[in-house]
Amino acid sequence: MTRTGTILRVPPFSQQLHDAVGASYDALDLPEEGRADFLTAHGSEVVAIVCSNSGRVDADLIAALPNLAMIANQGVGYDNIDVPAALARGIAVSHTPDVLDAAVAETALGLLIATRRRFVAADRFIRDGHWADGSFPLTGQVSGSQVGVLGLGRIGRTIAGLLEALGCEVSYHSRHEVPGVPYAYHQTAVGLADAVDNLIVIVPGGPATAGLVDRPVLDALGPDGVLVNVARGSVVDEDALLAALTDARLGAAGLDVFADEPHVPKALVALDNVVLLPHVGSATEETRAAMRTLTLDNLAAWLAGEPLLTPIPEMSRDQ
Length: 319
Ligand code: NAP
Ligand code: 8YV
What we know:
Elements: E1 6-9, H1 15-24, E2 27-29, H2 35-42, E3 46-52, H3 59-63, E4 70-74, H4 83-88, E5 92-94, H5 101-116, H6 119-127, E6 146-150, H7 154-165, E7 169-173, E8 184-185, H8 189-195, E9 198-201, H9 215-221, E10 226-229, H10 238-246, E11 252-255, H11 266-269, E12 274-276, H12 285-303, H13 313-316
Helix pairs in contact: 5-7, 8-9
The site of 2-keto-D-gluconic acid has 11 residues, from loops.
């Protein structure tokens, strides 16, 4: 059975993905303004959505699309989608696992090294003309340190492999112990933070992990500790993080993700002991091309009446 109908592009996403969808299908863009009128006029035409992690597909949007039957998400995390609302309607949902592991892992490692070695401050030190007055202060180092990985999934394991090459001692916390890995398991996030010098957060977002990194976890990491978050802003209690950094209860933080992207609290921007990235974990030409291809292949498979290539785990039980 093949399927036909209009594909709805939910912004924002890249021009390449936008154009690739438009080149192959009848496609419409969900407007930023006047959505209610647009959905009244076109809602019943839409059979599938293409979106990325920053495009919200909430219960109201799903309800306004009576013939929606597939959502193709460009991104491995899909906390932008109201999955219970989609599943309740029998809507298929795909995402893009595996193809971005290397890019996100190297972002995590780069952020850890940049934060621990204070590379951004060192760059500013030269630009501000301070070198002639004396050397940049010594810093800690990542090689040989104890690193905790919060979420030893696909990306977490790739990060752990890179850390091993630096002679780091890796340990982790997930809800379940992972069989066959050479890393120590901690039953709790606090226990993990207490045992390490550096903590890298790479769990999914959503209600189950909201505020998982809270004040007790930050205090356990301590004044010499470095936090790196490449997961979702929601996983870290941002107010608690700001307070810990300001009070020097936490050493430093490297952040690729924030609670209210693209808005970053001014108080965080003002701190010298943070390195900030604008959610670029997977943002390489190579990886985004692979993510785009997988997104489009999932959509094409669904339109052809074939199984999705990479359904979200909740979906694969029903396929
Ligand atoms: P994954 O393979 O599903 O791994 C997720 C890991 O988190 C698993 O080890 C899981 O183990 C653990 N976990 C899940 N819920 C947990 C909880 N409540 N408490 C503790 N551990 C929990 O996913 P992935 O492909 O590695 O991706 C992870 C996440 O990274 C994505 O969901 C996305 O949010 C984020 N991400 C960010 C970027 C970026 O650009 N910064 C790019 C890609 C992905 P258990 O099930 O045993 O708990
Ligand atoms: C991107 C991500 O921000 O895959 C994810 O979960 O957060 C990132 O890769 C995004 O989805 C790009 O389309």
